[in-house]
Amino acid sequence: MRIAAIGDLHVNESMTQPYRDLFTGMSAAADMILLCGDLTNYGKSNEAEILAADIAAATAPVIGVLGNHDHESGHPETVKAILTNAGARILDAGEALEHDGVGFAGCMGSMGGFGRGMLSAFGESSVKTFVQACLEETMKLETGLRMLRTDRAVAILHYAPITETLTGEPTEILPFLGNSRLGETIDRFDNVKAVVHGHAHRGSHRGATPGGVPVYNVARPVMAALGGRPFALFEV
Ligand SMILES: [Fe+2]
Ligand SMILES: [Fe+2]
User: Fold this and answer.
1) What's the CA-to-centroid distance between 151 and ligand 2, angstroms?
2) Deepest in the core among 2, 8, 121, 180, taking most CB within 10 A?
3) Domain range enclosing 28
């Protein structure tokens, strides 16, 4: 299956059909389109409507996750509903999908840090609440992957599961760009053949989990910096 992926479209209210050509191009190149969050700039319904009109131009199926920007207005469920009405499937509750023998699971993920530097649930109750929320996101990914019975699967995230695809970002902000639990979860499932994420606009395109699963940072600015086609394209 040929898969096209892009994240961080950041649609704002001043745009007119900003990604119509992108969705047409991805449909021509691939059998499946994946969207890696930050689809809108502020999570406003007007922004989601503008994107929905462009998604409706896609002829390949569209599966995505939301990003932190899609939560900014406090109504991610409205963004999800508008994009769902346009035909996209938005994964945000531990669900999984199968299409032509390939499984798809995903979630937004969360920040939290990497390796031994990962934030733990210790001390202030506010820290414990935050870490619990991070764990719940990871559980959504695990629940989705566990449901899949396909021998090939793709994980869709907004936040990064490894640091390798963050190369280029200031080291001070790495803990805000993702967390290792996402990568550790993916490595427990040998049918996962690829991972896509966004969020890290200044990161690097390609990396791998400790277990060797290819990870693609498909944030739009990362793809633009590569200078080729504006979206990632790979096969599973
Ligand atoms: Fe973004
Ligand atoms: Fe983001």
Assistant:
1) 30
2) 8
3) 2-235
